[in-house]
Amino acid sequence: CEDCGKSLIGECKLHGPLIRAKDRVIPSRARLTLPHYLTLRVLELRAGNQQILGVFAKKVIQKRTQFGPYVGQLSTKLTCYDESRLVLQVLKDGGKYFLDTPNEDCGNWMMFVRLARNQEEQTLVAYQHCGEVYFTTVKPIEPHTELKVWYAADYAKFMEASAVFIKEESDVSPLPLVAKEPVDSWICSSCGSTFATFALLESHQCIHKDRL
């Protein structure tokens, strides 16, 4: 104690405790990477002050907007599992690895995006490209809408998961919410390739245009 000049174990009985000043709380790496037109919202508060977060749009996000790559630790074993988030794996040097995010300093904001339960709420599709995972919007996202993701058709096969089909803004009959094999296929008129969704066909046709 500087007032009485004594070294004490614990608080000074004469002058009382010290006034404790706390460090400023610094946002995690994942929260700092959030784009300015997105925001995090607390959807649920569980035991132990565990927050269930969701990512929401603050302005209109156009269709075919790409986010990524997803940041995580390459691991042969998943150490952090959340049933509301997608399990992601990548192919690296011939091996299959999990993108593990045990805490918010090991990933970016994409770790907060929750999985889509059906075609109506899905706004993003996850896929692998050059050993990285990206999310791309499959339809325009309105303000205050939560971003939710599911696997692209080919990536779903890689992950050994079912495919969620997006209801297109057209007069076609809606596809089932969850199916292992597409009920209807979109056929490319140039090469005859078939695709599970119109979005995949549209992306494929861009390749033909580039070649021409």
UniProtKB/TrEMBL annotation:
GO BP term, example: regulation of gene expression
MF terms in GO: zinc ion binding
Coiled-coil features, chain-numbered ranges: none
Domain (C2H2-type) ranges: 186-212
SET domain: residues covered: 38-152
Record key words, sorted: Metal-binding, Transcription, Transcription regulation, Zinc, Zinc-finger
GO cellular component: nucleus
Gene3D superfamilies: SET domain
Keyword flag Zinc: yes
Superkingdom: Eukaryota
Keyword Zinc: yes
PANTHER family: PLAG1 LIKE ZINC FINGER 1, PR DOMAIN ZINC FINGER PROTEIN
Protein's recorded name: PRD15 protein
Lineage: Eukaryota, Metazoa, Chordata, Craniata, Vertebrata
Record gene name: Prdm15_1
